[in-house]
Amino acid sequence: xxxxxxxxxxxxxxxxxxxxxxxxxxxxxxxxxxxxxxxxxxxxxxxxxxxxxxxxxxxxxxxxxxxxxxxxxxxxxxxxxxxxxxxxxxxxxxxxxxxxxxxxxxxxxxxxxxxxxxxxxxxxxxxxxxxxxxxxxxxxxxxxxxxxxxxxxxxxxxxxxxxxxxxxxxxxxxxxxxxxxxxxxxxxxxxxxxxxxxxxxxxxxxxxxxxxxxxxxxxxxxxxxxxxxxxxxxxxxxxxxxxxxxxxxxxxxxxxxxxxxxxxxxxxxxxxxxxxxxxxxxxxxxxxxxxxxxxxxxxxxxxxxxxxxxxxxxxxxxxxxxxxxxxxxxxxxxxxxxxxxxxxxxxxxxxxxxxxxxxxxxxxxxxxxxxxxxxxxxxxxxxxxxxxxxxxxxxxxxxxxxxxxxxxxxxxxxxxxxxxxxxxxxxxxxxxxxxxxxxxxxxxxxxxxxxxxxxxxxxxxxxxxxxx
Length: 468
Description:
Elements: E1 4-5, H1 13-29, H2 36-52, H3 54-65, H4 69-95, E2 98-100, E3 110-117, E4 120-124, H5 132-143, E5 147-151, H6 157-170, E6 176-180, H7 183-190, E7 196-200, H8 203-213, E8 220-223, E9 229-232, H9 238-250, E10 262-266, H10 270-284, E11 292-294, H11 298-310, E12 314-317, E13 321-322, E14 327-329, E15 331-334, H12 341-344, E16 351-357, H13 360-368, E17 375-379, H14 383-392, E18 397-400, E19 414-415, E20 421-422, E21 424-425, H15 427-433, E22 435-442, H16 458-467
Parallel strand pairs: 1-6, 4-5, 4-7, 5-6, 7-8, 9-10, 9-17, 10-16, 15-16, 17-18
Antiparallel strand pairs: 2-3, 3-22, 8-20, 11-14, 12-15, 13-14, 19-21
């Protein structure tokens, strides 16, 4: 089986997908994907792909997103390879049964949990990090011993075509297929009834994915987004805050699900922080002709430009746009109202609102009043404030004195909460998310206590009440 190209215009895609899934089920039923050796070969294959094809991947990402080679390496290549290497080195240990201590009323017996593959996983990738956020979930799927269908984003066509061409040369093409297409293809695929659906994208589309999977009881992991806040207290090192916030906000033109969406800063240091972020942006873009950053398409450009045209905040840096080039300058907006579109919608672009607050606790309350974000960031030197932050703010992940670095730690689970996502992955957490944790209880045939069988007397019930 090689890469699957689908033309949905003739209405034949459903039958094609049915045949595809049936063939994958036959492969899975044969048992070839269950052994550690097969899983490790797939992970090594991903590592080789990322090493040998780095130039091609970087070129595709530049075509789709205007990404520099350095950002392509950091955001998509090194991060994906790190996941594959981490899983490969620990996979045999993850696969071992995990013995469990049983209560006295179960003895004599042995009990353990063993991990078995779910079957066939569907991975629906996004356009913003179309390698990392497509192949990262694939690492989890193959580490768990599953067959998989990969559906890259049609909004990153060069990268989608590259994955479709390269993956069959590095992975088991009988067990892992690539299907290209739009949202119609995605819905048709889900309708085939996968054993797991893994989606990365926006919250509204995530709802549609979950609704489509529900009639078939296909479990889902939804990695969504939300407005990830940065809270800055007056005692923070503002130079460090400015560099770290500007670094991640500029990466991929702000089109990053864990990018700082807005800043809540104590009023006494607001102006100083804004000046330092502005300076950091100019320093980081000093080798470029201007502050303009490309966004993915006209739809996203028009959405972002409308935010700047309608905001009631004060634009203090940037603000320039070019529709023909699909570029927007790195922009800072000071004190938009909480009801401003910049503060109600996920921005997903190079625009950073900075809002004044009178205290860290006011900032915590502001974040709590809104949907739970994918990430929440705090910069502070105060240990009590850090503790209150971790207790007070619910988010998919929390990072103190940095932004975004948690996603590069495969030792930590990555996922959302509430509107920012369902489920998590990375490292062992991805292996477990794409596995079935099967309970196993083994008992001898003897002794066989008669008191557990009816008819029950008052005496036997009294004994059973004490036992159970």
